[in-house]
Amino acid sequence: QQPVQSPQAVILREGEDAVINCSSSKALYSVHWYRQKHGEAPVFLMILLKGGEQKGHDKISASFNEKKQQSSLYLTASQLSYSGTYFCGTSPNTGNQFYFGTGTSLTVIP
Amino acid sequence: NAGVTQTPKFQVLKTGQSMTLQCAQDMNHEYMSWYRQDPGMGLRLIHYSVGAGITDQGEVPNGYNVSRSTTEDFPLRLLSAAPSQTSVYFCASSYAGFGYTFGSGTRLTVV
Which residues of A touch B (CB under 8 A)? Predict the structure, then answer.
């Protein structure tokens, strides 16, 4: 049930853009995105539900294509504070049991 | 408003010992879950609960028990600790359709 994330790691310079992908082999009802900084707990970024909607949060946005069972997280004009590991969590139904991907390590350098 | 509180923060166990990781939330969330996090493995779901008295297994339930007698508390019991259970454990809670709030984690070492 664990979704697959790509890439595993990415290094950016400040101001550059990045895309993180999340795909599942099972039908999805919803997708969550979280960011985790080293030694801390994951922090919720956004949730996307069935409907192919796109959401935004400052310069971070995401899309969800339930037909392709995929979601993508877009980080634009990256800042140093964006560094961390990004996880997608997927659920096949309206329940809240989520299965997380293995994470994408994002490092933003000056 | 404390959010999700996990205790202890650190624990060292000997193989075969049992212990309970505590998790409490004060947000009246109906959903609660336990995850373990290992290097390169991401977060793996151990057990979850959709309300008081209702629990179910996740991806990696073997060696762990849970119960949910109240909305606030969701303890995780290790029955007989093994070195393979060395990990960081996170408890999380949410309302239906909302994102999870995670606790600060328990770092468990089994020797």
Answer: 1-2, 30, 32, 34, 40-47, 49, 87, 89, 94-103
